[in-house]
Amino acid sequence: MIxxxxxxxxxxxQVILQFQGQVLYGSWFDxxxxxxxxxxxxxFLVILYEELQxxxxxxxxxxxxxxxxxxxxxxxxxxxxxxxFKTTKDNKMSNCSLSPDIFMDQIKGFMRKGxxxxxxxxxxxxxxxxxxxxxxxxMAGLAQDLFPWE
Length: 150
Known about the structure:
Blueprint: H1 12-20, H2 28-36, H3 49-54, H4 56-66, H5 73-82, H6 85-90, H7 125-138
């Protein structure tokens, strides 16, 4: 958990701040919208977390092809082992456990479940509808099928 948030044990206040664009490093919507305008360019690859969840091996192979790197079976297996959610969650370089306690609740941790769709256990129907409305406004002009969300 990031302790500097207004309510560090709930995702909802962070999302509300995102809606308002009042977050460190700027709005997620602006960040993603600007990057997704690059979709289709030769040197730009979009990989969705949902794709990683569905078929991590195919996604790694797509990435290695994009980078022009042919992976041996041993290299592919090493990548697959090291990018699994469990390995990433246990890795001090990626799980924020090296962050000072003043910023992070080291007991709860930074990484949660590693599953898609968990937002449903945090958002009310009204919050979900509000997100959908703001998403449509902020992401206007981009393809509507970019994210495989329900």
